[in-house]
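During the no-cost extension, the postdoctoral fellow (Dr. R.K.) reprocessed legacy sequence entries with the updated structure-token encoder. One reprocessed record is reproduced below for audit purposes.
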Amino acid sequence: MSQQQVSDRNRMKRISLEHVYKAYQKNHYVVKDLSLEIFEGEFLVLVGPSGCGKTTTLRMIAGLEELTHGDLSVDGVKFNDKDPALRDLSFVFQNYALLPHMTVETNIAFGLLHYRLSRIEVKKRVEEVAKKLSLYDKLGHYPAQLSGGQRQRVALARALVDEEKMILFDEPLSNLDALLRESMRKELISLYKNMHVTCLYVTHDQLEAMALATRMVMMKDGLVMQVGTPKQMYDEPHHLEVAKFIGSLETNVFYGDVKDHAFYVNHEMILLNEAMHQLLNTTYDQPMYLSIRPNQITLSKKHKEGFIEGIIEYIEYLGEHYLLHLNALNQKVSVLTEEDVKDLDKVYIKLGGICHLFDKNQIRVYKDLVDTVIISKEPSHEKDLQVIKEIKNYGYKVVYDHHNPDIIYEDSNRSCVFKNRFKHIKKEHLKDLIPELLDIRFKRH
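Re-encoded structure tokens follow.
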């Protein structure tokens, strides 16, 4: 291996996917228009329900699947047709993929064979990584003699011993029990902090994703729904599907109508907090979704003004809390409370905590919409940059949205469509155009 190759392998990797599509059958796309940057040294987690395209994305990066359309580059070099063996990355599979006739030591060392290292160097590397993962006393054992957690650590050791700067994980903890998963999560976090690598991790477990990630990507039906830190995904969901998927307890979703600056569900007006009332003042009368988490609903054993009756269907005891499953407003509602209400048939609730409104397309509506301009792609051309500068000079905040780069604003009454950038805006028309832009209702980063 040349000095240049060694130098390249010792650098952390930065991966770019641009407008990537993957189809297994004609016009049946499992990944659709995926554009994503994986930054050097981050722990990026792809999360989403089964069939969302996350594992396919991982396999395309690894070279195990071909891209139907789009570009994949690593450190600025196009990798679309790069041989998987030459991509300088490690892969940890869900099913361990251990060789049953080889010892733990040989399994760990297997990937080093093509590096033509000396036996002394191979032994040194294997023993070092075995000690880090508490496998040193198992080096002479065979996979059949190991527990599930130990096998997964062997698979991880095999990835780490290569000393690659990019590691891909395909649901590596899904076959472990709850206690082992928690233990392995701690080990992964510790290893990540100490090894200076870039990690791309796939899981359907959103709690696992939130525990591990420096940044998350949620996918559904082949589309990226949102990219952000775990806190951003939980606190600021851009799409209703994100609000429903992220969080240990599923959020409550009410479908209703906005009329006269109030929210109605089944013809009953819902009293919301002051911030939500201000937001309703900026929206058109239209059907909308209201999302509120179980811990944000106020509960009372007695009827109070502004509270809604909820019939108790069943109660889950969670130790310090009770999770109540109610029928309120003719729909299912979950409430998290510390109060013991097991002797009651009904309670009263108020939706007055932190909540989010989503439009009919399930895109979030923001309370600070009135002073924000949303554009679909971060500008790179000089003309674009000048337009953005002028917008900021008028005192407006500018945010970028990558979810749908073609449509910025659309509703049943009128539409305003821009392709990718604002370069078509003439400077002299900017001041007149800004009020139009401020009507845009779309999620934001």
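Confidence is low (pLDDT under 50) at residues 1-7, 367-377, 399-445. The first strand starts at residue 15 and ends at 25. The remaining legacy entries will be reprocessed before the final report is submitted.
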